[in-house]
Amino acid sequence: MTAHLGARRVSAIDLITRLDLSHVLPGVALDAREFGGVRLLEPGALALAEGDLVLGVGVQTAEQLADALLECAAAGALALVVREPVSLDPLVQQLAESTGVALLGAPAGTDWIQLASYFVDAPEPARYGLEADAAAADSDLFDLANSIAAVVGGPVTIENPSNRILAFSADQARGDDARKQSVLGHQVPSNYEKILTSSGVFRQIERSAQPVFLPSIGPGVRPRVAVRIRAGRELLGSIWAIVDEPPSEMQSAALVEAAAVASITLFRQRAGSDAARRLRVSEVLDLLEGGVRAKEAAERLGYGSAPTSVLAVGLTDTATSSIAQEDAVQRLADSLGMYLHQIHALSVAAPIAGTVYAVLPHAQGHPGPEYARRIATTFAERYRRGPSVVIGLGAPVADVTGLQRARAGADRALRVLLWSTGGPRRRLVADAEEVQVESLLLRLSDSLSAERESVTGPLAVLREHDAGSGGSLVETLEAWLDAFGDVGAAAGRLGLHPNTFRYRLRRLSEIAAIDLDDPEMRFSLMLQLRLFAATAPGSR
């Protein structure tokens, strides 16, 4: 059987080998039909269809497994993937054999989103008429990886400059654990990336026109040979092969030639990918514009009359460089688009000015805001590709012409979430209504900043004192106010002994003439701390 993995096809044997899956019941044959798509088996997901490969999210017990097999069989799905250990009993075995649904086991630590992202290639070439070019480029890279592996005698990966796996040879079962983790996650694990970066290996590969041999970088990690993929001065990626010894002259020449071939293929692949992404950004922009443009875009995409929500998604940590930040945002957009596609095939997601926006039509019978919240929360909790994410939700609109208003609400909620990521009320998902007060304070703070209004009164005195002495009286005051005068709780928040904290309270009262028993003064100080937080030293 062949399976559609993004734009490419692989045999069932390759599927099991490459993703480290096990065929739990070999007696249930994988027939010659093709996978029609990949679906997540969870509440709210897109309905299963004939020929699907189904990822059994949440399937743990034998009873759940039996129900999942019945659901797959009813839809005509071809295979079900569940995390190991698989709970088999006579009923499950009988169901699998009678339904003909192949049962595959994934390693216990498998992340469903990462596994699904292997199959669902974002962006979707077919939607933009780019399927043939994308399929050809993708197939070329996998064929090239297999050819290189035959020459060097070891498993091969082809990676982009961010060490994301673009293609790999079919013999990955012979690789080490580091390679298997890379292929399963579609990305070189961060711990290995850090070692290669700090030791200067990446820089050495980029500067060398010849393959670079790398001895083992740690226990259980076999030696490798790597060669850059470059066009002119632009680095497009690299080719990595697991080997036991430095390559021969013939093998080195073959690697250099393969890198030249890969550079042509990557240009073709990137052209198709960039075109699809530009078109998708245009779709999202049209929808978020609201009005007539949104209506026209919705008609092009085939939207019906279902309620629609806007998600504004941001990264909580910024990368060290603008290029790395852009790459992280694009990975986030691709992952979100893939995930939402499983929920509703007409959903779209794209990065716009550093924020990832998604437009999600609601499933029939789910008009309320909790539908989008549940989906957003699940994604935010599962996203594991670097910085964590927070998601602002716009109120669902019955007519797409109102999506501009929904986007504004999502933006306000996202800003509050990003501003308060380090606070005690840290949240992953919120809508504009539940963060209205914080949003109003931020907007008022913007106005004060624009008018160059500076803090005055006792708070200004404390800030000046802290700046001159290196003290933390403002922090002490804020902790005390946040704890409603509970010295023990406030001291614990700052890691201080209660007596030390009481001493600081007396000091700040004396220095700034603050009467902590005066409710009006407490309110004024709390308001100032919120309004001028954006301009305070060390604040976000």
From TrEMBL:
InterPro entries: CdaR-like_regulators (IPR051448), CdaR_GGDEF (IPR041522), PucR_C-HTH_dom (IPR025736), PucR_C-HTH_sf (IPR042070). Residues 294-416 form the CdaR GGDEF-like domain. Pfam families: GGDEF_2 (PF17853), HTH_30 (PF13556). Residues 473-531 form the PucR C-terminal helix-turn-helix domain. Belongs to the CdaR family. This is Sugar diacid utilization regulator. The lineage of its organism: Bacteria, Bacillati, Actinomycetota, Actinomycetes, Micrococcales.
